Structures are given as C-alpha cells and as structure tokens.
Amino acid sequence: MESERDDGRSPSQLRPLSCARNVLHRSHGSASWSQGDTKVLAAVYGPKAGTKKNENPEKACIEVIWKPKTGQIGKQEKEFEMILKRTLQSICILTLNPNTTTSIIIQVVNDDGALLVCAINAACAALIDAGIPLKHLAVAICCCLAEGGYVILDPTKLEEQKMRGFAYLVFPNSIVSVLPKGSSHVEG
Amino acid sequence: MDGRLANRWRLTVNEKKFIETALASNLRIDGRNPLEYRKIIIKFGREDGSSEVQLGQTHVMGFVTGQLVQPYQDRQNEGMLLIFTEFSPMAGPSFDPGHPGESAVELGRIVDRGLRDSRAVDTESLCVLSGKLVWAIRIDLHIVDNGGNLIDAANIAALAALLTFRRPECTLGGDDGQEVIVHPPEEREPLPLIVHHLPVAITFAFLGSEGKLVVDPTHSEEAVMAGRLIATVNANGDICAIQKAGGEGVPQSAIMHCLQLASMCAISITKKINSAPWDYVFCSKSNFIL
C-alpha cells in the first residue's frame, strides 16, 4: 500500500545521508553523521588506562557519554547511553587491550527523528576513525509501524509522533576490513 | 597504542622553552604575529538560534532556546537570561563528565557578565505579562574541541546564536485580557531578540618572565602562560568587563595597552559576527564552493 509521506519519500526511502570524519583535533577519532536534518557528532578517546569500579578488568571497557542539545541529563539520556554501550561492546574486540577504557562521547547537534540510529552510525564511524579494532561494522536503521499497519523507514520527528511503534535494527556488516583513506600510504 | 594511553596531556619542557624563545623574537609557533587573531568561521544550524564557531582548532556550539516562566520576585518586569556551559569530554582528555571544573565555571561567568551586566540583550522586551509570565532565554554552550582560547570562541558562539534566535509572538487575549496566546510560527512571524550591542571577549596571555603579550593563545601557549587577562569590550569602545584572575602581576601600563588593543580587535570581530548570518545564507543558498 503506497502512501504519501510529508516530504514526498516512499515508505522505504531513506533521507540523504552524509558523514564526515576527523572533524575534531583533540580527540583520537571523530565523526559527524547526518540523516536529513538529524545530525550527531561522535568523538572517541582511547584506550585510556584503567577501568571503572564495576567493570571487568580482564576485558577492555567501553564508556558512552551522551550529551543532549539542551537541558539536563535525564533518564532518556541514560537509556541511550546504555543501549549504545551494549551495541558497541558487541562490535569491539574486547580481549585485545584488557584493563583499558575507551570513551565515546555523543553530542546531539540537531534532532529530527531517528536520533539513536544516527548516533550508533556516528559512533561506529568515529571508532573507525580512531583505529579501534572492530569485529565488524554496526549499521543501524529505524523502522516504524504507522497507523495503517504498514512499515516506514527513517521517520522524521513529526512522523515519529504519529507512529504506533518503532524498532531500531542494528546489523553487523560483513565487509572484510575498512581502512581510513591515507592510512595505507607510507612516506619513504 | 602506547602513546595514546594518556589520560592527561602534558607539555614537555622542550616545547615550553621553544615557545618562550620564539616569542623573544616575536614569533609564535603557528606563524602568527603576537597581536593577530586566528581565523574565525561562524556557521549556523537548521533551527533558529543555533551556531557553530571555529576559532582555529577550537570548536564551540551555541544553542538558544526560549521558555515562558514566572519572573523573579524582585524583577517582575524583566525576562531572564540563563547561560549554561558544558565542557564536553569531547573537547579534551582531561575534562570529566561530572561536575564542571573551575575553568568551566569561569567561562560561564565571563560570558554571563558580558551579556547580562552590560545589558546587551534587552530583558524588558521579554516581559509578556508583568509579574506572571516572562520569557526565559537559555543559552547552552557546548565546547566540542579545545584548541585554546575557549572564552572568546564561546562568547562569539553565544552572540551569533542570540542574533539568529527567533521567539514566537505572544498576544494578550481572552475574556479579561489576562490570557496569553502564543502564536505558532505558521501563524505569525517569530520575533528576533533586541540586542543593543555586542560585547566581545578578547583574551590576552602573558608569557615568559618579561610578560610578553599575545592575543588569542593556542592550547600550548595556554599551558605555558604565566598570567591571563580577558577584556570584554564592544565596538563602541565601551569596556563591559575585565577579568584578571591570578597569575603573574602585570604593570598598569600593560593593562591600558591591552584595553586599547582589545577595542581594535573588537571592531573587526563585531563586523564579522554581524555579517555572518548573511554570508552563511548566501553561501548555502547558492552553488558556490568557497
């Protein structure tokens, strides 16, 4: 059943994506990811020595800090941090650098729907930019169930408010390796 | 990976000596002369009141939002201006996500003093219903990358965001004329804030034993400096605020010299901030790649 979305997309069409890496100078890796008007900036610092109190020191630890655009840090930000942490723990190789902490900081620049999905993609791109070894990439997409019972992808904020339910799906990507451009050049 | 297991960044003795010796021949490590500012790039986001400022390697984002609240008891006719500064752990390895350190609080206070005490933003026009409802303008400054001189960059971000912020228009209606109707942007055009002047903060760093003066210190110069003076001035030549918090003592003549330099820098920076919204719209609407 075809139906018109507000911005003229078809139900399975995504908004224009854009990604830039190495946007910050002090952090070890950084990336900015935008889907339509939703924009997220991610930075990675790591690995740093030591783990937090409740973490297992025999493995590397991932720490996620979520910074909202305005306002205090509340329960929703903590929930996003937890989801992102678990997702990234499943793609990083944790046995490589035991007793270290890799911090990922997410800054929301603009929220126009599908925010968590944009953040997962940005965090993955930032980890690649930092050169942290990963098992595979994490590619995230947001699907929601509209009133009429059909599924649409990548909703905007207005569409999200009218939906009955959503699902964020994260897929492992099966590419063999991803090298940032320029890393294979060795100047003599 | 060993070189990156750095939880704190420290400047080596060699780098420190190099910066000081180079300054003795009036050279700075990034090639500028001591009284030159780095390149300022001001960009804006999709929504009104969001700005992104890059001062060399320093990157700050500013977001302005407005809300209707009850006024303070002793200021029943005035709106409120609130400034929140966040030193994101993104900006440097030593910033903790917990409670703000002293430099974050200092930055917040300097920007706050420059805007509030100098009455740059007209708060009386933010009053909707005297004693009951006023607009509270909230400025959130996110420090995203620390390349030195955060205070100046944060101030410019706050000013750029305030200039592009639009608040919805409110009218009084209802049976007794006491009901406030907030018009959505589709109904009535949102209004800009009334900004009388732009207070610009200029940071001076004193380096070395003779107290050599540099404007707009980078991150390494800040680690080496002996003292710092921040002067908030506007393009008319008025001094809005001065901050000299500790460090090496400087003679009175040096302070007067700083204030004169600050006035000159402020004129060019103010021109840049005022023309930034137009330049940005022009670049994004046309197909030029600049």
Automatic annotation (TrEMBL), chain A:
Gene3D superfamilies xref list: GHMP Kinase, N-terminal domain
Keyword presence, ATP-binding = no
Q: Where in the cell is the protein located?
A: Nucleus
Q: Does the keyword Kinase apply?
A: no
Q: Which CDD domains match?
A: RNase_PH_RRP46
Tell me the InterPro entries matching this sequence: ExoRNase_PH_dom1, ExoRNase_PH_dom2_sf, PNPase/RNase_PH_dom_sf, Ribosomal_Su5_D2-typ_SF, RNase_PH
Task: Determine the domain of life of the protein's source.
Answer: Eukaryota
Keywords, ordered alphabetically: Exosome, Nucleus, rRNA processing
Q: Where is the Exoribonuclease phosphorolytic domain?
A: 13-133
Q: Which family does it belong to?
A: Belongs to the RNase PH family.
Q: What is this protein called?
A: Exoribonuclease phosphorolytic domain-containing protein
Task: Name the species this protein comes from.
Answer: Salix suchowensis
Automatic annotation (TrEMBL), chain B:
In terms of Pfam families, this protein maps to: RNase_PH, RNase_PH_C
Would you say which domain of life the source belongs to?
Eukaryota
Keywords carried by this UniProt record? Cytoplasm, Nucleus, RNA-binding
Asked if the keyword Cytoplasm belongs to this entry, the reply reads yes
Q: Where in the cell is it found?
A: Cytoplasm; Nucleus
Spell out where the chain crosses the membrane.
none
Q: What residue stretches are annotated with the Exoribonuclease phosphorolytic domain?
A: 36-168, 197-262
Q: Which InterPro entries match?
A: ExoRNase_PH_dom1, ExoRNase_PH_dom2, ExoRNase_PH_dom2_sf, Exosome_comp_Rrp42_subfam, PNPase/RNase_PH_dom_sf, Ribosomal_Su5_D2-typ_SF, Rrp45
Query: Can you tell me which family this protein belongs to?
Result: Belongs to the RNase PH family.
Q: What is this protein called?
A: Uncharacterized protein
Native organism taxonomy: Eukaryota, Viridiplantae, Streptophyta, Embryophyta, Tracheophyta
